[in-house]
Amino acid sequence: MKIKSLSFAILISSIVLVSCKKTENTKETVKAETKKEIVANVPMQKETATFTVEGMSCEAGCANMLKTKLAKLDGVEKAEINFETKQATVEFNANVQKPEAFIKLVQEALDGKTYKATNLKSTLDKVNP
Fold it and tell me: What residue spans define the domains of the chain?
């Protein structure tokens, strides 16, 4: 009888724990989708930022990792990093993102000491919807 009671208690506990995790994931998904909708509804003010990235040791690892991180930022339309010239170019919605965020992201990547971003320049292309 003790074994049945113990088994039943473990079963109920497992169900409760699993259902809580599903609820958390659902809440995170809803937040992410809501954030995407907000970003999608912000008027487009296209801007291009360019800057130099020092400290990269390889194209496949460093440059690709930084490019991926930049591309995931809200409002970023396109991110490119040329390993040879050490030049980064980011096309983004200026109503959603600021170019200073790109510098911060690059300089704080990994240990915060590996990469240095300098010579930030940006151009504003107004897009009339």
Answer: 1-41, 43-124
